[in-house]
Amino acid sequence: MLEIKNLHVKLEDEDRVILKGLSLTVPKGEVHAIMGPNGSGKSTLAYVLAGRAGYEVTDGDILWNGESILEMQPDERAAKGVFLAFQYPMEIPGVAGLTFLRTAMNAVRKKRGEAELTTPAFMKIVKEKGEKLNIDVNMLKRPVNVGFSGGEKKRSEILQMALLEPTLCVLDETDSGLDIDALRVVAEGVNALRDKDRAFLVITHYQRLLNYIVPDKVHVLADGRIQKTGGKELALELEKSGYADFTGKAA
Amino acid sequence: MNVALMKTKAEQALTEAFEASAAKLPGSAAVKARRAEAIGAFGSLGLPHRRIEEWKYTDLRGNLKDVLPPAIHDETPLTIAELIVALGPLAHVDAHRIAFVNGHHRAEFDDLRDAAGLEVTTLGKTLSSAPTNVADALTKSDANGAIAALNAAFMTDGAIVRVADKATLAKPLVVVFVRAGSAKQTVTVRNFVSIGDAATATIIEAHVVLPGSAIESQSNALTEVSVGKGATLHHAKVAVDDGKCLHLADWDVVLGADATYRGFQFSSGLGLARNEINVRYAGERGKLDLSGAYMARAHEHVDTTLIVDHAVPNCESRELFKGVLDDHGRGVFQGKIIVRPDAQKTDGKQMAQALMLSEDAEFDSKPELEIFADDVVCGHGTTSAELDPDLLFYCRSRGIPEAEARALMIESFIGEAIDKVENPELHTALMAFAVNWLSNAARG
C-alpha cells in the first residue's frame, strides 16, 4: 500500500513550494488516477516518488508497504518495487536497448536476492513481453529510445515496467504525444499488468487515457493538494467542467 | 647573434642516441644517408613547442624530459599466449595478422594464410636492400616536421601492405605492435598501406602492451596510406597502454577519386599522446569519415590533430571525436579543414566532444576552417559537458546503482563514436576496451 502523508515539497534551488500537504492512499490491487491542471504538481509528485534530485521534502512522508522511502536512492526504490514511466522517456545513444534492460533487470534482481538471468532466459522473457507490446527484439538492439517515435518510446517504457515487475507503478502523462492506436497498445500493456499485488498511480491531464485504463479512484490535484476524490465518473465530470473550480479555489 | 633556441637535454639526447645507434639501424647505404639527413633536419627544427601554433596545447619540448634509448634490436621472449593477452579484446577479431615486438617483426606470430589479394612485407627487410629511389620513398613523408624526421632517423620496422586492384579482403588485417619486456625504450615504426583501385579492405593498427612490461615507454608510429580510385579502406588504430607511455602517431592519407576512407582511432592509458591525421583528396568525389574515442585520467594527455585538405571539388568529410576525461586528464582537438579555391561542392562536417568527469579535467578544442571556395557546406561544433543528471536519474530509476549508471552513461557517450566502426568484432573489442578503462577506475 502506498501512503502519502501530508507531503510538502519545494524546489531545492528555489523558494517555490509545489506540494502543500498532499495526502493519498493507494491500496495494492487498485488503480488511482491523479488529474490536475498544468502546474498543479503532478509531475513533481511522480518525481518525488521515484527519488529524483532537486526536490526537498520539508514535511510529511511517503510510505510504501509501511516503510518510508524518502531516504532511499532511486535505485533502492526501484528494487523495492517503485517504477516511474516517464512523460518524456530519455534517449541513451550508444547503449543498446537489450544491454540497458539486462543491466536494469539484473541490478534489481540482485537487490531483491534473486539470481541474475542467463542470456537465453533473458532473451526469452524480452521476446515474450515485447511481442505483447509490438516491440520487436531488433528494435531493442538499437540504442535506447534513439530515433523512436513518441509511441515507440512509451511502449518501451511499458516494456521496462513489465520486465522489472514493480509493485508500485507510477505513470506520468503516459498518454501525452500518443495517437489513438498507440494509446490503445500502451493501455493494453498496462492493463495486462494489473494485479492484486500491484498498485498503480496514473497521472494525466486528460480523461482520454482513463477510457482505456479504468481507474478505481480519481483524485484531483490542484495547488499542491488533493482537492477532490471520487470514482471514475469524476474524470468525465472534469472533462466537461474543466479544472476552473479547483484552480479558482486555489487562487 | 645566435637566435636558435638552446637545445634541451632531450633534443641533445636524441641526436646522441642517433649517433650511437646509426650503424646498427637497418638500411642500405642510401637509407643510412637519408637517416643522417633526417636527424640533421630534426637538429635544426628541435622538438615542437607551444609557440608553434599546431603544438600550442601539446608542448612536447617542455614535456619530454628523458629520452629512452631506441629499440635497435629485440630478442624479448614472447609466447603466442602472451601476445593474445596483450591484444586483449582485439584477440577476438577474426583477422590476418602481422606482428612486431618492440618494433621488430616476429614472423612466428604472423597469420597471412589464404589472404588472397593481400601482400604484406616488412619495412625492416625492405630498408636493408633499398636502392636510392626506394630509400627516398621510404623516408620521405607528407608530414614534414620534427616528429616525422625522428621517425625517418630511427624507424626499425613496420608493415608494407598492398591490396590488389579489385580485391575484397575477406578478413581484416591486424598490424600489431606489442610492447614487452622490462627495458625502457623507444620504438619507432613506419607502415605503408596501399589499397588498389576498386579494392576493399579493413586494416587495424594495434599498439598494445604485455602486462608486467616496463611502465615507461616511448613510441613514434607513422603510417602512410594511399587509397586507390573507387577503393574503400576501413582503417583503425588502437593504442592502449599503462598510463605512462609517450605515443607520437601520424597517419598520412591520400584519397583517390571516388575512394572511401573510414578512419577510427581509439586511445586509452596513454601518458602523452599526439595523434595526427593528414588527409588529402587527390581525386573528386572522395568520401572521408574520421572518428575517434579517447579516454584519459590521472595526468594523461591525448591530442588529436587533423588536417583535411579538400584540394579538389565534390568531396565529403565527416569527423567525430569523443573524449572521456577524468582527474587531471586533458584532451586536445585541433581540426583544420582546408577547402582550396577549386574545391567547390565540398561538404565538410566536424564535431569534437568531451565528457568531463572531474573539475580538474581540461579540454582544448580548436576547429579551423580555411575556406577559399564559395560553393561549399562546412560546419563544425565542439561540446564539453558533465554527465547528464537527468539521464543518470533515468537509469537509477530502473534500479541501476549509481556507479553502474555512470559507467553506462560513459559507455553511451563513447559508444556513439565507436558506433562509427563497421566491423562488428572490432566494434565489440573497442567497447570492451572502453569498459576495461572504466572498471580500472572502479578498482581505483
Count of distinct structural domains of chain A: 1
Shape estimate of chain A: globular
Helix content of chain B: 10-25%
Q: Main beta sheet of chain B, described? A: 17 strands, mixed
Distance between the termini of chain A: 33 Å
What is the quaternary state of this protein? heterodimer
- Tally of DSSP helical segments of chain A: 10
The CATH class name of chain A reads Alpha Beta
Run of helices and strands of chain B:
HHHHEEEHHHEEEEEEEEEEEEEEHHH
Please give the share of residues in helix of chain A. Answer: 25-40%
Q: Calculate Rg of chain A over CA atoms.
A: 18 Å
Unreliable runs of chain A: none
- Mind describing the biggest β-sheet of chain A? 6 strands, mixed
**Integer average pLDDT of chain A:** 93
Low-confidence stretches of chain B: none
Largest interface: A-B, 29 and 25 residues
Q: Provide a count of the helices of chain B.
A: 10
CATH architecture descriptor of chain A:
3-Layer(aba) Sandwich
> How many extended strands of chain B?
17
Which structural class is indicated by helix and strand composition of chain B? alpha/beta
- Which structural class do you get from the secondary structure elements of chain A? alpha/beta
Family (chain A): Belongs to the ABC transporter superfamily. Ycf16 family.
Protein name (chain A): FeS assembly ATPase SufC
InterPro entries (chain A): AAA+_ATPase, ABC_transporter-like_ATP-bd, FeS-cluster_ATPase_SufC, P-loop_NTPase
Domain ABC transporter (chain A): 2-248
